[in-house]
Specification:
Elements: H1 2-10, H2 19-28, H3 35-42, H4 46-57, H5 70-77, H6 79-92, H7 105-126, H8 131-140, H9 143-151, H10 153-166, H11 170-178, H12 182-192, H13 197-205, H14 217-236, H15 241-256, H16 260-281, H17 288-315, H18 317-335, H19 345-362, E1 366-373, H20 377-383, H21 385-403, E2 408-413, E3 416-422, H22 426-441, E4 445-447, E5 450-452, E6 456-463, H23 469-473, H24 475-488, E7 494-497
Parallel strand pairs: 6-7
Antiparallel strand pairs: 1-3, 1-6, 2-3, 4-5
């Protein structure tokens, strides 16, 4: 790869980012950029202005509105989004190609538009916090093909000839003939242009995201979105439809738990969004009627598969439902505390680990509360264990009700209760803790015609967006330190930390 990469670096015809794109790349490296400064740079390229306005008003990208000027568009989309989007529009317009060794530019841009449309749709559900990074990565993921076609025409011609004769994934033909592929070469050049590491890594691995090769989980997740989206584009650019659909369903199920119905919806939504993508990029694509015909054939195939699967399921539905009921009952018993009805310690440990991984992938905050009922032993000593059990059940129910949906309430052990609070900031966690403290204080049971109640001490840790993984891994230890502080400073109080 080194010789070919060096040739591309030195080629006089190698594309480079236009002036506005270079300025945007430089702005991306700064933390103090403001709206007015970015607007001044962007307005020097009227084409980018028009595309950003369409983006800000496009229902296809989940941003419908009545935005009329670039400053409004920047405020609507956000500074980081505008940086990435404007950069993607500039880079997409670098090359339209003249000859390129018989490189099929309309076919390339058709594949790029399909990949971008499908990635945009997938990222809304799978990676909502990284939609703009996905958008830029999807435009650039096969950009290396353009570079090879324009700057290494002679070496690339045998690849194109083999692809035209035999079909098959072009990256495999590239590796066989060139010893590398367009994704790897493109990613290296994008790194030299100063693009974010996340995007370069996602581009490098998008054809076959390895499980352990990408250290950054966000980049690996973006690569998976690009991988599935590229498989969608393969359906429209010459891959055998049946085998392509089988591969798409298998990969989409592995990454995103998508069934044939979800794949069908993805194809339909992708076709609907393509027109917006093509208009924004300003590229020439294949005939829309041909694309629609392929999509119809693909959806028919998926419907037939779905019907066949439904028939198989119906044949064994009675046994399956009974087995499902038994499994659910067994799982409920295995993960539920028998006394309080709350989830148990094993369930807590499993879900805390799962939520830590999810927070690391999405960048969302994550909170943890540890609650200890004050002087609970005296309830058992003074009123007996049945009364203690009744009070523990009542407190558990009150905490579950006050915590509300979205929070995972578990009996941690003895008189301790733990709450996992996904997507919860430090301030929100403190508000939740005070609500729980008040709920416990207002809870009582009756023994010998007298109310019996206790207070609760609460310690918590909120792992904010961007916090380092070691702090996240120490959540229980850090929350327990705050619980100890609450008990040592008088009980019936809350202490929360985020560092």
């Amino acid at each position: 790869m080194s010789e070919l990469l060096e040739q591309l670096r030195n080629a006089s015809s190698l594309p480079s980012p236009p002036g506005v794109a270079l300025e945007i790349i430089n702005l991306n490296q700064r933390d103090d950029i403001d709206i007015d400064e970015l607007a001044i740079v962007v307005t020097r390229d009227p084409a980018i202005v028009a595309k950003l306005l369409r983006m800000a008003n496009s229902s296809s990208f989940g941003r419908p509105g009545q935005i009329s000027d670039i400053r409004q568009a920047i405020m609507t989309l956000g500074l980081r989004s505008v940086n990435l989007l404007a950069l993607s529009f500039s880079l997409a317009s670098i090359s339209k190609g003249e000859d390129g060794g018989r490189f099929d530019y309309p076919l390339y841009w058709t594949a790029s538009a399909v990949t971008t449309a499908a990635s945009t749709i997938l990222s809304r559900k799978a990676l909502p916090m990284l939609q703009d990074e996905v958008f830029l990565s999807s435009i650039l993921c096969d950009f290396g093909q353009l570079i090879l076609a324009e700057a290494a025409t002679k070496q690339y011609r045998p690849v194109l000839k083999r692809r035209a004769a035999s079909g098959g994934p072009i990256q495999e033909i590239e590796r066989e003939i060139l010893g590398t592929d367009h994704a790897e070469l493109g990613a290296e050049l994008l790194r030299e242009w100063g693009l974010p590491k996340l995007i370069c890594d996602a581009v490098a691995y998008h054809h076959a995201p390895p499980r352990d090769a990408i250290e950054d989980r966000a980049a690996a997740a973006v690569a998976q979105v690009l991988h599935v989206s590229s498989m969608v584009s393969d359906l429209y650019t010459g891959r055998d439809l049946d085998s392509g659909l089988d591969a798409l369903q298998s990969t989409a199920a592995e990454y995103f738990e998508m069934d044939s119905s979800a794949c069908k919806e993805l194809l339909e939504a992708t076709e609907e969004s393509m027109a917006d993508v093509v208009e924004m990029l300003g590229v020439e694509c294949s005939d829309a009627g041909e694309i629609a015909a392929i999509r119809v054939r693909a959806t028919e195939h998926l419907v037939k598969q779905s019907l066949a699967l439904n028939q198989q399921i119906a044949a064994v539905s009675a046994d399956s439902e009974e087995l499902k009921r038994r499994n659910v009952a067994l799982e409920e018993r295995a993960t539920t505390d028998a006394l309080t009805g709350l989830r148990n310690r094993g369930y807590f440990d499993e879900w805390l680990e799962s939520e830590r991984e999810r927070a690391g992938q999405t960048g969302h905050p994550l909170g943890l509360l540890l609650l200890d009922i004050d002087h609970f032993k005296s309830v058992n000593d003074d009123h007996g264990h049945p009364c203690g059990d009744d009070l523990l059940r009542a407190i558990g129910a009150a905490i579950q009700l006050a915590a509300g949906d979205g929070h995972i309430v578990c009996r941690y052990g003895g008189e301790e209760i733990a709450i996992i609070a996904p997507e919860t900031t430090c301030n929100e966690l403190e508000t939740l803790a005070e609500r729980l403290r008040a709920a416990v204080a207002g809870t009582s049971v009756t023994h010998d015609n007298q109310p019996v109640r206790r207070t609760v001490s609460i310690g918590g840790f909120a792992n904010p967006r961007g916090q380092s993984p070691p702090a996240c891994l120490r959540m229980k230890e850090l929350a327990d330190e705050q619980l100890y502080r609450a008990k040592s400073e008088g009980r019936d109080r809350v202490f929360i930390t985020s560092s």
